[in-house]
């Protein structure tokens, strides 16, 4: 099989890139020239995985089918996981697709391409911490669903336990850890409303962060306001606490133990170890080293999103954020469409920081907007911040669905919540 452009990874950046290219080439050319590959059959916006984990977002309603998205945006889709890459021959290999008992459904496949884009994201950095591999991660939809299953079981156990308490420890005070703690509190509040008085229990949540403050990549005002908001909700925020080891029932830290029934690891970013075997230059975090045009060490192969180590300013790299993947997708769409016309885009990619927003539960948020334009002190909070946060999700859907379908989808989900409730208990 051969395609002009192959995009590996259907996250925020990869999917938006495929949609832009497919729509530009149109119904007649798009499917023949553009191929998107992902190891899952449906798409979830990764910044919303903490909601899936808490049960405040139903993955079966939120998930969008890649084949249907391909039909609507005129690109082809293959289910598969990258296992090998020959940059010189412009050939990639996909693992065989098997059943749970090992039966082969689809054999190993090879696909050749003229131009390739790698957008396979990244995972968590465990920093070699003993026992960290036993903690829950939130890297993929399957991780979030697995945690949600454990969470429901822990909820049930706590509601009948003599002490009527349940503890959750979250390692990492970045956006994922902070937002997960807020969503867990929302889920607990929703659950208590459905329980009798004798079954109600207390939920103790602790965020453990090695740095001096949470949300270290955001302005200090944003971090301080988020800390105050979380502590008012009852979340314990332990900063300057390095995790020494993870045990089944507690975290061992430099400032003492943190007991927990569930432990989530949401600290650090590191790309897959297998990236170093793909024949492209990588850095110490296994990210693909790219130039200011997002091109890797192999000509004709680009990388975007969390898996790319893209230069920014003052020796820093472009941060692993959804807005960066969105901007990179728009830039690469211009680059690749120019290549199809046998032309080139000479202007380099320039990341623009429009600020950061963090959700602190229903109708609450905090953040700094337009960091690259109005300065880091353009601070917003409360319902306004929450609305802006929701608008980011809607903007992603608009990029892959269009305005009409995004409005319809948003209204349908709002009505579904009114009927079925916000918390998924199955």
Question: Overview of this structure, please?
Answer:
This protein is of the alpha/beta class and 426 residues long. It contains ten helices and 23 strands. The strands form seven sheets. Strands 1, 2, 5, 6, 7, 10 and 19 form a seven-stranded mixed β-sheet that branches. The protein has a four-stranded parallel β-sheet with strand order 13-12-11-17. α6 (175-192) links the parallel β11 (165-171) and β12. The longest helix is centred in the N-terminal third of the chain and has 22 residues, at 12-33. The radius of gyration is 22 Å and the shape is globular. The chain starts with a strand and ends in a 6-residue tail after the last helix. The model is unreliable at 371-376 (pLDDT under 50).
Describe the structure concisely:
The chain has 426 residues and is an alpha/beta fold.
Write the layout of secondary structure elements.
Blueprint: E1 2-8, H1 12-33, E2 34-38, E3 42-43, H2 49-54, H3 59-62, E4 64-65, H4 66-73, E5 76-79, E6 82-86, E7 91-94, E8 97-98, E9 104-106, E10 109-118, H5 141-160, E11 165-171, H6 175-192, E12 202-209, H7 220-233, E13 236-239, E14 243-247, E15 250-253, E16 256-259, E17 262-265, E18 288-289, E19 301-303, E20 308-309, H8 322-340, E21 355-359, E22 365-369, E23 379-381, H9 382-401, H10 403-420
Parallel strand pairs: 1-2, 1-10, 2-5, 10-19, 11-12, 11-17, 12-13, 18-20
Antiparallel strand pairs: 3-4, 6-7, 7-10, 8-9, 14-15, 15-16, 21-22, 22-23
Helix pairs in contact: 1-4, 1-8, 9-10
């Amino acid at each position: 099989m051969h395609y002009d452009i192959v995009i590996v990874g259907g996250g925020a950046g990869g999917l938006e890139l495929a949609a832009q290219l497919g729509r530009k080439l149109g119904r007649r050319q798009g499917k023949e020239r553009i191929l998107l590959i992902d190891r899952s059959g449906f798409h979830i916006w990764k910044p919303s995985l903490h909601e899936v984990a808490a049960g405040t977002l139903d993955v079966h309603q939120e998930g969008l089918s890649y084949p249907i998205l391909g039909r609507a945006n005129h690109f082809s889709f293959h289910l598969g996981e990258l296992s090998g890459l020959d940059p010189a021959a412009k050939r990639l290999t996909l693992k065989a697709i098997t059943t749970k008992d090992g039966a082969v459904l689809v054999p190993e496949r090879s696909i050749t391409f003229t131009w390739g884009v790698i957008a396979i994201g990244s995972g968590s950095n465990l920093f070699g911490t003993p026992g960290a591999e036993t903690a829950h991660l939130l890297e993929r939809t399957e991780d979030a669903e697995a945690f949600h299953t454990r969470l429901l079981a822990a909820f049930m156990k706590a509601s009948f336990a003599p002490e009527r308490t349940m503890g959750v420890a979250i390692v990492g005070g970045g956006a994922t850890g902070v937002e997960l703690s807020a969503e867990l509190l929302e889920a607990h509040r929703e659950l208590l409303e459905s329980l009798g008085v004798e079954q109600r229990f207390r939920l103790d949540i602790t965020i453990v962060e090695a740095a001096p403050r949470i949300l270290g990549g955001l302005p200090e005002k944003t971090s301080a306001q988020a800390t105050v908001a979380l502590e008012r909700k009852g979340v314990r925020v332990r900063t300057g606490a390095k995790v020494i080891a993870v045990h089944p029932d507690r975290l061992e830290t430099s400032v003492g133990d943190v007991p927990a029934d569930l432990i989530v690891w949401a600290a650090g970013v590191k790309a897959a170890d297998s990236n170093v075997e793909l024949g492209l230059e990588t850095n110490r975090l296994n990210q693909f080293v790219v130039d200011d045009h997002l091109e890797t060490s192999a000509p004709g192969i680009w990388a975007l999103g969390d898996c790319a180590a893209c230069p920014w300013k003052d020796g820093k790299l472009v941060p692993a954020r959804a807005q960066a993947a969105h901007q990179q997708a728009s830039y690469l769409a211009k680059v690749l469409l120019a290549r199809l016309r046998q032309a080139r885009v000479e202007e380099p990619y320039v990341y623009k920081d429009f600020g950061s927003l963090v959700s602190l539960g229903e109708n609450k948020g905090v953040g700094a907007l337009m960091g690259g334009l109005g300065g880091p002190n353009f601070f917003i909070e409360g319902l306004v911040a929450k609305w802006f946060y929701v608008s980011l999700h809607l903007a992603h859907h608009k990029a892959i669905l269009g305005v009409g379908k995004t409005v319809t989808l948003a209204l349908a989900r709002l009505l579904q919540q009114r009927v079925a409730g916000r918390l998924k208990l199955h």
